[in-house]
Amino acid sequence: MSVILKNPSSADAMKADKTVQNVEKVVYKAFSDVGKIEVLNLFALRGTYPKDVMEAYMAGTDIVGKENDSAFAWALMQSDYVVIAWGGASPIRSSLYDIRVDKVLTMINVPDFSGKVYRKIEKGSDKYPFHACYWPDNANFSVC
């Protein structure tokens, strides 16, 4: 299973942050057959706050990352399920955010990907799914 978030804050390959811990807790309750969760991010740039991503972009930094799209392609091919959970654009400029969201949604919707895409039911939308940091313990998911 892959879960797609906005950007990494303090989490990395060795340490989970609050959002990743919540993802693990909720996903393992909602999807009992999942054995592994791969966390992906729209933007590879690490920033404690999403405003850090926008500030880095304004300073000329590549916020998507050179390897991010290939990491997406690899993870998606390994996943039976994908949960989208990146939230809204704020404070990242909407035009910039929408370009990246559209690119990721296109990657998910390729014919080679046979998995199902989910998001939290009660809040958010298919384009701006409810951010995983705010999922309650008993989150319900629907197929997009």
Written overview of the protein:
- This protein is α/β, with parallel strands linked by helices.
- It has one domain.
- 33% of the residues lie in helices and 14% in strands.
- It has four helices and five strands.
- The chain starts with a strand and ends with a strand.
Largest sheet: 5 strands, mixed
Order of helices and strands: EHEHHEHEE
Structural class of the secondary structure composition? alpha/beta
Alpha plus pi helix count: 4
User: Roughly what fraction of the amino acids lie in strands?
Assistant: 5-15%
Give a count of the beta strands, DSSP E runs of length 2 or more: 5
Instruction: Please state the oligomeric state of the protein chains shown.
Output: single chain
Number of domains: 1
Pick out the low-confidence regions. Answer: none
- Measured between the Cα atoms of the first and last residue, the distance is 15 Å
**Considering DSSP H and I runs of 4 or more, what fraction of the residues is helical?**
25-40%
Strand order of the largest sheet: 2-1-3-4-5
Round the mean pLDDT to the nearest integer and report it: 90
What is the CA-atom radius of gyration, in angstroms?
A: 14 Å
- Name the shape in a single word: globular
